[in-house]
Amino acid sequence: AQQLEAHRGAVVSNEVGLGIVPANELARTFRDTLGRVNTLFADCAERSVLMVAGRVVELSAP
Predict the structure, then answer these.
(1) Residue boundaries of the structural domains of the chain
(2) What is the pTM of this model?
(3) Per-residue pLDDT of the chain in tens (62 residues, 90 and over written 9)
């Protein structure tokens, strides 16, 4: 596996898993894949936050 160098930056992503379960398979696959990608980013980050209605919700450290 290739090692990644540490860099400072920000990742902005959508949160798609808090709503209803999508009716079609493609939308469910997208929701599940984006959730896994967001989890990978959060696991590597020094800080993860969820923005809700303009408010910052601190997520727990990995």
Answers:
(1) 25-58
(2) 0.77
(3) 566 677 788 999 999 999 999 999 999 999 999 999 999 999 988 899 999 999 999 997 65
